[in-house]
Amino acid sequence: MKSNQVPAPQPMFEVTYNYNYDGKVFPYQEEMTESQLRRMEKYIADGGVNQFGSFYSNLVIVKELGMTDVSNLEIWLKIGMENPWIAEAYDPTFTYNSFSECKSLDYLISKLESGNWCLGQAFYYKNMCFIQQVDSGDEWLVIRGGIKFESWSCGRVIREDGKEKFINQLNRMFAATDQQLRTLEYMDAGEISYCEHCTNKMFPGCDKIYLRGTTCKDCYISKKLYLQAIVDKVKSGERLVKSDLKYLGYRDSFFGIGKGMEDNRGLIFWDTEVAIGYPYGERDSLDITLYKPISGNGNPTQLQWQLVDEYKAEEDK
Length: 317
Prior knowledge:
With 317 residues, the chain is an alpha+beta fold. Helices cover 24% and strands 27% of the residues. The protein has helices at residues 34-45, 73-82, 105-114, 154-161, 163-175, 178-182, 217-222, 225-235, and strands spanning 11-21, 24-33, 55-67, 99-101, 122-125, 128-132, 140-144, 147-152, 193-194, 201-202, 267-270, 275-277, 287-295, 304-312.
């Protein structure tokens, strides 16, 4: 195939093979076009070994995946060449050979999350195309059909926020109208809920939603609802973990003057049931102390307190 001509459709296959290097065997599962498959078959049959001593073996066709969809390649190449960064690709240059179809969403995700792709490398799933804009980077130009609408750090989203968030956003991109894509309002193309404390939209599977899906992140922090969540957890008998302390700040700590807790290093909460100790002014501390009243009534300052637990918050399980 010439790099300046739209390629003809060809069969695709899911295959497995071994990559052998330095005495170690690395199994791979890939989606390949027929021409790629035949080249690897010939390479293996010829006993091909590269300059580093690595070679392929045990190539197996798992199943047929149908024909390649080349219907959008011409417009995607044109849009890519209009991009000032992609147009500068030179090793290799940006051509039809830069595009690789992914027949499954899982395969697309595996490619986008791996990183280190050359400038101009493109993957597409159905009518959604991702073209790398930074050499060895993670900044993908996103195109649906003939509409370019987003620059997305796909690998970071998948690695840091999880596949669920990526898939949720991608599904909204597929469901959005052309106008929603152009105005970057594609997140409205799907289920939406609203924070009970404000009018912020919340998108399930995308932005983290707090307190059983009723509160947006902004309100969770600004209204100190994270502190109430800590208190509720302690009163239910659970130990705190590191993520519970994520939003605690300097202003959340105070010194409580009560009998039996004279040596406390600071509190973040107390009432007539429990006092929660957290070192005053130490933003990233993991030290937790719990006090319970043993006598007295009324104001916490008038109670007799007893230390009942002391521990370091652990990682989430």
